[in-house]
Structures are given as structure tokens and as C-alpha cells.
Amino acid sequence: MENETSRRKFLNGVVAGTVAGQLLHARALPTSKVLGANDRIRIGIIGAGDRGQEDLKTAIAVPNVECVAMADVYTRRHDQVRKFVPNVEAYTDYRKLLDRKDIDAVIVASPLHLHAVHFLATLAAGKDLYSEKTMTWSIPEAVRCRKAAQQSDRVIQIGLQHESSGALADAKRWIDSGWLGNVSQVESWMSRNTPHGKGEWVRPVPDDCNPEHVDWNLFLENRPKSAFDGYKFINWRLFWEFSGGNTTENMIHQIAWIITALNLDLPSSATMMGGIFLEKDGRQVPDTIAVTLEYPGKTVSWQSTFGNNQFGLGERILGRDGTIEHVSGSTDMITGRPSHERIFYYPQKMNRPDGEAQTADTPNQNHMANFFDCVRSRKQPNAPVEIGYKSAIAVLMANIAYREKRRITLEEAMRYEPKYA
């Protein structure tokens, strides 16, 4: 165990040093030309599974955006993308995509454990970046990616689509107007269900998911080498080695929304309870969760189950002078979009007797289009690295608390060595 830990530290140091050198080289390059409204933005995508393909379809629906290249370790996904981007150049190795000089921006939608690798490599190549959530698999990676972004002039959007929601704009307007007063507690939840015997996220392994069609070593790029495992490759969300479980898949959207609405920084501590209470399908990550995050002067809770979808998802922000209730139907796993969405303000009459209940319907922005607008204008997008960093730290602290079976402070979490298994 000691030898393996030392080996991991050495490899991490090598990777960090290599990326640092690449970033220094990238910063020596001239800034990309400013693109006009009629200039075509040429993009590539790294990671073209279901989520990546949905991102890509959303991207090429934006006027004057063209996908010229894709990279995925599984050749089946090359064929799937060619069905809607016929002339795309397909690579197994993402580095070949990043070597191209004709690509302005890159979408990273690879499995979570590869986000930091592809994030840093994209910046090092001098490309603008749309990186799917959660920004990174671990806290040390989040620190490195944030630092690299601060040293870069690239436009970076994190795939936290709720940051572009009209409901967030409404909530901020009500909060900034002082209608809530002192907020001491936030409640949030997300619920789903599946048929008996079918666990959430479990997908069948295609017949061609084998070493002939999958570059398994490239998938394991920053992980200890092991024999090919098609079940783990297709169902990576079930395993700590590659995933953060439901906190990094779903809680991340809601905690980012709450952080932005209330202008929060990092939590001072976290607890998380739960377990695998539903389907015993070999998963390591819990299917039922209760998280509490402590921030100065307030607590934020998030509860989730994969065993009942009656109440969809939502948040309640509880202030001395008023309440915000934001509710949605269950969200689609691929698009991240809720089936319906409503937001309400209710005054606390004892402290705001003249206040009136409010509802709002500010339209959502297109999160991907916002990214491309910023590629052209060089302005900050709706979900910049800072919210990616703050939300990642929050959910990763919760996971550490669960795995350590105790309350974790921010100071402890920032020193924590990630565990693969």
C-alpha cells in the first residue's frame, strides 16, 4: 500500500510538472483573434458518450458553430457522432485533436476522472473550453485547474446549466432586494426511481465493447493499470475510481445554484450519510444520501434517493423575512433539463407584513450559446471556473465525509489524499 501511494504521488507530480510546462508554453502563444458574429467557430469534443453527444448537438445548433473533430476511446461513439456530423474527423487519442491548429474551442465531456486531465491539456493547447460538471474528480485537481485557469486567457464555461436559468436570476433579484432577510437554512432535494431490478445508471454492455474497440489504457490514463472491464467502462458512474456518485452528477447543479444565489464561498464543514439501499448491482457509490454543509451563519442540506421520484427536485431558501421555493419535475439524466420548473417568493408576514407573494418566469438562457457568445466577446460566461471550483469543493467534501464516516472540516478536506477504491 505504501509503495502504491508513493507511486501515485510520483505520477501525479510528473503529470503536474508536464502540464505546468505545457501551460507556460501556451501562455507564450499569442491570444486567439477576436471572432466576429459572422465568423465560424470551429470546435472539437473530447468524450462523446450520451452526455457528450447531447452537448455536441446543442453546440452545433448554435449559428456559425462547426464541429470538425472528436476524440473518444470507444470507436462505437465515432460512428454515432458521424450520424449527425458526417464529416467529423474522429480520433481515439484526444491529444491528436488538441494538436490541430484549426480548432477554436473544445467541449470536454469525458468521464469524471478524466476531467482534470482534459481540462489542463485543453488550456495548454491554447483552446477555449466548455468542461462538463463536476469540474474535477478530486479537490487537489480542482485546485490545479483553478490555478491554471487564473493563469490563462482562455474562456472557460463549466457545464452547470442551472447557472443560466431564469429562476436563478429571479432568486438573486429577490435576495438582493432584501426580501428574505437573514437566511439561516437552505433545504434541497433530488429524487428518481427505476423499475424493480434495474438500478439507476446501469446500462447494458454492447457486444463491441472490447479491447479491439476501446483504448482501455487511455481510459485508465491517470489510474492504476488493470485488465479490461467492459462493465466498469460503460458503467463508470458506479465506481469511486472514476466517479463521485450522485453528489457529482446531480447535487453539483443544485449546490452551484444555491452558492450563486446566496453568494457563498466554501463550506466550513460537511457531513454525509446514506448507503446502497436499493439495487445490489456491484455499485460502490450510494443510492440514498443525506448531506449537510455548514457555511458561516447557515446550513445547506441536500437529500436524494433513487427509490422514489414523487417530489422531483428543488430548493427552499429560508430567511427571517421570506422564503424562496424553487421546484422542478424530475430531470433527464442526459440533458440535465427539468420537465417543468417554477419559482415562488413568500413573505414572512411577522417580519415583512406588507410583502406579497411573487412568482416569476424569467426565461432560461441557452448555456452552450452563452459559452460561444463569450468565445466571441471574451467576456466571462455564466458558469466560470470560480463557481466550478466552489461547487466541486462542496460536493467532494460531502463524499469525503461519507467515506470517512464523520464530519469533515474544510481544512481537513484540503489535505485529504483521494482514494481510488
Descriptive report:
The chain has 421 residues and is of the alpha/beta class. The protein folds into two domains: 2-162 and 369-385, Rossmann fold, CATH 3.40.50.720; 166-199 and 241-363 and 397-415, Dihydrodipicolinate Reductase, domain 2. Helix content is 35%, strand content 21%. The protein contains 13 helices and 15 strands. The chain has helices at 2-27, 50-60, 75-82, 94-98, 115-124, 139-150, 166-176, 216-219, 230-234, 246-262, 367-377, 385-404, 410-415; strands at 41-46, 65-71, 89-91, 105-108, 128-132, 156-159, 183-191, 269-275, 288-295, 298-305, 313-319, 322-328, 341-347, 358-360, 408-409. The strands form two sheets. It has a nine-stranded mixed β-sheet. It has a six-stranded parallel β-sheet with strand order 3-2-1-4-5-6, with helices on both faces. Helix 1 runs parallel beside helix 5 and helix 6 packs antiparallel against helix 12. The two termini are 12 Å apart.
Keywords:
Rossmann fold, 2 domains, alpha/beta, about 425 residues, disordered N terminus, 13 helices, 15 strands, globular, single chain
Number of helices: 13
The major pleated sheet works out as: 9 strands, mixed
Count of spatially separate domains: 2
Mean pLDDT: 91
Widest beta sheet: strand line-up = 14-13-12-11-7-10-9-8-15
Q: What separation lies between the terminal Cα atoms?
A: 12 Å
Give unreliable regions as ranges: 1-31
The CATH homologous superfamily of the largest domain is named NAD(P)-binding Rossmann-like Domain
Q: What portion of residues is helical?
A: 25-40%
**What is the overall silhouette?**
globular
Strand content: 15-25%
Radius of gyration: 21 Å
CATH topology of the largest domain: the name is Rossmann fold
SSE order, as H and E? HEHEHEHEHEHEHEHHHEEEEEEEHHEH
Structural class: alpha/beta
Instruction: Return the CATH class of the largest domain.
Output: Alpha Beta
